[in-house]
Design brief:
By secondary structure, this protein is α/β, with parallel strands linked by helices. It has one domain: P-loop containing nucleotide triphosphate hydrolases (Rossmann fold, 3-Layer(aba) Sandwich), CATH 3.40.50. The protein is 33% helix and 22% strand. It is built from five helices and seven strands, in the order E-E-H-E-E-H-E-H-E-H-E-H. It has a seven-stranded mixed sheet, with helices on both faces. The relative contact order is 0.18.
């Protein structure tokens, strides 16, 4: 299926939030985990989402419409070691919370996890928070072209156990396209559920 992804809305402040009728899948993950690269890979364009060598460049909620499926991918600001003030980070946290709470359009949150790292405290906190809210999680191990197969399998098993899932996390590489078809199928399945 030929899909297109288009940026239709960028939100920096709570007062800018609006209610879209279409289903939404949020993209969440640490700064520098590869959210923008994932969006660009899925879009088939290198410059749709801005990529930087400086972690934490996404400082807004970015709504990308996926057609012909008719859902949004909503890119959330990264968490972790972004070089910004505590005030700025607190502002992002409030914006994300305002977006998440009582938003019945969210079908799932795709949690991006760096396949080169063991489970991190912030990732565990995020997945626990989402489970507490009853929001389905789509775990995606990014940069999966980097580690050896055995290391990837070990990390997949760890996350599958932590999240108590029946399926292993999706292996994905923006560089090679590994897992792209499986990711599309999973996103469409959740968006249409």
């Amino acid at each position: 299926m030929n899909r297109t992804i288009e940026l239709v809305k960028t939100i920096y402040e709570i007062k800018q939030l609006e209610d879209f009728d279409e289903p939404q899948i949020a993209l969440a993950g640490r700064s520098n985990v590869g959210k923008s690269s994932l969006v660009n890979r899925l879009a088939g364009r290198k410059k749709l989402a801005k990529i930087s060598s400086t972690p934490g460049k996404t400082r807004s909620l970015n709504y990308y419409r996926v057609e012909p499926d008719g859902f949004f991918l909503v890119d959330l600001p990264g968490y972790g070691y972004a070089k910004c003030s505590k005030v700025e980070r607190a502002k992002w946290a409030k914006l994300i919370e305002a977006y998440m709470v009582n938003n019945n359009r969210i079908k799932a949150v795709a949690v991006l996890l760096d396949s080169r790292l063991t489970p991190q405290k912030l990732d565990l906190e995020l997945t626990s928070y989402l489970r507490g809210m009853g929001i389905p999680i789509i775990p995606i191990l990014t940069k999966s072209d980097k580690p050896k197969q055995r290391e990837r399998a070990k990390l997949q098993n760890q996350w599958q156990d932590i999240l108590q899932l029946t399926k292993a996390p999706i292996l994905f590489s923006s560089k090679t396209g590994l897992g792209e078809d499986k990711l599309w199928d999973t996103l469409a399945e959740f968006a249409n559920s």
